[in-house]
Amino acid sequence: MPVYRKRSLLDAPVREVFDWHERPGAFERLVPPWNEAELLEAPRSLRDGERAVLLLTRPPIRLRWVARHYGYDPPHAFHDEQTEGPFTLWRHAHKFLDEGKRRCVLEDEIEYRLPVGILGQIFGGWAAKSQLERIFRFRHARTAADLKRHGQFRDNQTMRVAITGAGGLVGRELAAFLTSGGHEVIRLVRAKADIAPDQAHWSPSTGEIAAQALEGLDAVVHLAGENIASGRWNPERKRKIHASRVDGTSLLARTLAGLKVKPKTLISASAIGYYGNRGNTVTDEDSEHGAGFLSDVCRAWEAAAEPAAAAGIRVVNLRIGVVLSARGGALAKMRTPFKFGVGGVVGNGEQFMSWIMLDDLVGAIHFALQNTALEGAVNATAPAPVNNREFTKTLGAVLGRPTLLPLPTAAVRVLFGEMGEELLLSGAQVLPHKLTEAGFSFEHPDLKNALATEFGKG
Prior knowledge:
Elements: E1 3-10, H1 14-22, H2 26-29, E2 37-41, E3 51-58, E4 61-73, E5 77-84, E6 89-98, E7 104-113, H3 117-151, E8 160-164, H4 169-180, E9 184-189, E10 199-203, E11 208-209, E12 219-222, H5 235-257, E13 265-271, E14 282-283, H6 293-303, H7 306-310, E15 314-320, E16 322-325, H8 329-339, E17 352-353, E18 355-357, H9 358-370, E19 376-380, E20 386-387, H10 388-399, H11 409-423, E21 429-430, H12 433-438, H13 447-454
Parallel strand pairs: 8-9, 8-12, 9-10, 12-13, 13-15, 14-21, 15-19, 16-18
Antiparallel strand pairs: 1-7, 2-3, 3-4, 4-5, 5-6, 6-7, 10-11, 17-20
Helix pairs in contact: 4-9, 5-6, 10-13
């Protein structure tokens, strides 16, 4: 029977590593971004009898994977076995071996048997082992990185943090990261009925918000807003984009300012669209705003948070670059044409793209929550922006696909109008000076290595 093992030495005590695995959010953090898997049911703990349910998708196949926990032995081990899924047998031992006061060994040991007996071993054995190596290389690296980020502030108190947009790409990952670190997350949702204990109602369009649920919070992270790239901009779409950012931020800031026990911190999302089209000019937080629709929206968006700052709340306007993740957003949309070999340079390819990997954005938000010296405008971008030509070449190389079919400037304008002009043909070389000066460490500062990690090619 095949057995796969992965061992890593971690710079964290065994109890801390086991506790991280046991908290809510850890299971989501360990699902590789390139896996087409949907978490249907997360285990409430690692105790015997708990289970995890995943929906695995590889068109046209959709398959449920159910794993049941057993052998709970804190802080040394827990186990799971497949009760429904693609393997004839799957037993997974998670082991935590003490290596002294501040170090431990994380070991995963998996016994598995592929279907169709010996034929499965002959024709699927190498592929299965290769996939396991990809997955567990990612899992061990993610575990080490998360523990490092949380360990940097282990002497700080855990926080109660409310998140708007918690169902979005960034919000979901941030909530999982924070809860796995021992923090409590309250999700602001638009639904009124069947509100869960970790949720609170708000509705920017009607001005409703459950203010009492926000009393006594340590911080609020405001991420909600209309998707700016979901279709051509017309007057109504632009009105919705503007209102979703400005009205929601204003409602939240005014509500927080009026609380008896105010949060210490509000991190309010903004965007590098603030700077407009800057060509090759290097841009940082001290640079002036640009021109255009997005710049106007960003200025109004940031101004809407001023009531919170006036009430003594530390406000961070996080100007976020192009967020890259295989789970969704811009990179997931780009992947399809590149996968089929029809990706290419957009326009003249000289426009700069200031990007940030999703996991570094989550880390930057966490850093800003913990670091009280950060305030006002803070750029959330990787320290090495690239132009569109370089990005195209790098993505094609990582995916092993040609990049021979350009999208000319005239075609962008015809197909996407003003949206294409501002999102695809414009750019700015934005640097994260405040983050780097404050000591923030990027896990993925290099584009090629970052993309390789995100797609499991590293």
